[in-house]
Amino acid sequence: MNNKNQPPCKPRWIALALYGCILLGILAKISIPIVVASSAKGELPDDSQPHKTVLAFGGDVNLIDGSYVMPTYRASGRLSRVLTGGLLKRMRTADVLTLNNEFTFSRRGTAQVGKPYTFRASPKSVKLFTNMGVDVAFLGNNHVFDYGPTAFRDTLRTLDKAGIHRIGAGMNVSEAARPVYRTVNGKTIAYVGAGCIERYSIQTPGATKSSPGIFRVDENHMKTLTSTIQNAAINSDYVTVNIHWGREYTTVVEDYQRKIGRMCIDAGADVIIGSHPHILQGTEFYKGKPIVYSIGNFWFNTKQNYTFLMEIILDESDNARLKFLPCSTGGGITRLTHGNEAAKIRNYYEDISFGVHINKRGVITPNKRKGRHTDKESAKIK
To answer: Does 15 map to a domain?
Structure first.
């Protein structure tokens, strides 16, 4: 029996109610992407937008069997547990990733006599490079020839078989000096590699017309490197140069590093990425182009230290931003840092650099009032 004080139900209201319930049920079962203006981890919101090209660079990596970082990796069983804090994802999503291959891939060869540290890894470990997303391996260092020419050849073959490009070393000087070209989002990027370590006691041979080795240069023998860069600049939109140089375990940049870096930029390079000191050395801008003197150890040993993943972000007009992603390495783990820890590392790197500023998003720009740069010091470099 109906209550006369209650209004009768209208069929249209019932239909609308049923429709609303059905719609809510559908929305609950599907995932709708949400666009946010910023990230809680401080990422630039526009880095992942279309028409952006991201070139990533990490420092020294050592996959030596049974020591350094490999026991930690073996115990963890996953790369994501040793490259943490979102670091592995950042590496994999870069358009091109370059790392310093500071060892040899081989089971053969004999360790160089009189060399205190020699590094050799199983060729099977190249799968770690593949899983990291490595596209280019820099070989112009002082450990790629640790086990002689046979192991050196194995290294080249291992990388080639894995589809990883290599720079800075080869079976002859022509191959060692040859740039790698990668075309991404319609842009051609040139990668050049060279080494100028062991300046007074050479143990790693420089490649010649008929013998293998690294692409060896120094401030008095730059003709081949500068001509290589000039040609690369003609044939690409952006030129990167990796150089192994400097003294180990010091933030002090040698005058010859600054001279070579400037000569490379004068020849047409757009960015210089240094390695060998095993710790960070600062950055300076020359003619508006960055020279990163040492990018440090990336995933190399168990020592506690600062490092970073460097990103170069290119827009459609070939404008480039240099981005510093601060990391901490130690115990066989390299971790992308955030918050106050990241700010501490950014401030440290700004202090050891030459007139640069690093904002909260990690973008590095020139600022003569920051760091240890002085006009008097700069005038000494000619």
So the answer is: no
